[in-house]
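User: I'm preparing a small set of examples for a lab meeting where we compare how different chains pack in three dimensions. I only have the primary sequence for this one, and I'd like the structure in token form so I can line it up with the others. Please keep the answer compact; I'll paste it straight into my notes.
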Amino acid sequence: MSVRNLSLTFICLVLAGCWSQEGARAPLPGTVGPMGEVLVVCELPVWNGQAGDSLRVALQKPYPVLPQMHLETYEPMFDLVHKTPPEFNKFWKPHRNIVFLEIADTEKTRTPSLEIYKQRYAMGQAYIEGKARTSQELAVLISERAHEMESYIHKREVERSAGISGLTTDEVIERNLLEITGVSMSVPRGFQQVMISEEFSWLDRQQTRFKGSDNHDVQQALFIHSESYTGPEQFSLEYLLNRRDRLTKKFINGPTDGSYMAIERHMIPTYEEIAFNGEIAAEVKGLWRMENDFMGGPFYSLTMYDKENARLVTVEGYTYAPYFDKRAYMREIEGIVKTAVLLNNKALAGDR
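Assistant: Understood. Below is the structure token output for the 352-residue chain.
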């Protein structure tokens, strides 16, 4: 074989090898791991040091406004699992949420950094990587960006929960909601249509879960209600709470005579203006209770301005699960609520 032919053969083999490697590259796998869990990868001294302490403060604070009997039994935002870098093998890399921390005296750690990646080792994965020369530098950086880290991982968890809930939906209820309220949203199978009207809509889901030696009820419900928009004061927390109380007193009766749903005012609900579908929305998280009864639990509410129809629209949901942790149920509720899209129901009615 001539030198020229040998060279051509070598080039072809190299190109074939590159093509084979690229062509054989498998798509990223799906994520693994329990809901709400974060895998922390770092050396043991980092985990037990200042950086690890800062991370626990950032990611394990109590989940907002969940009813807790005792401080030591609170539900954290996330459950943390620690693994060292040698343990971080192919079985752990597709984990749903990963925080990788590195402390080393190298050129790449000269400036402390904390990067947030999407889909590093798995589709839809939340991957955060922090690097610094000292544990103190890394601890300060984690503290400074704690809210950003927590919000990002929570957002991904809510999106995953909504994705699972949306796999099987009730198209009949979804169509009824859209036609009557002008709200398009994903309604998982199992929810029942209690009432749907322009003033107030109520969907309810009753489930049974086994714990201990007995079955216990778990209830989740969704409300949709709207009113004409008259001014920005309608977006205030006090106005939204009072409006909700008026509606639930009218429509949501409890199991005993004279009982009705109301907001628990002893624990002030949280309020935040967030970007939602390109607009500003009011997000409220709080506790509800039954007046003249003993039921209660958490609720999540999102209020949006419907410019096309000059109205204020609230989509919200609650959980009643006295024998169970409520974090996963409320992330599911938030995920369902955030599938809501406001459409011009007047235009839709004209098309029929």
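A couple of notes for your slides: Residues 30 and 200 are 39 Å apart (CA to CA). The domain at 170-351 is CATH 3.40.1000.10 (Protein Transport Mog1p; Chain A).

User: Perfect, thanks.
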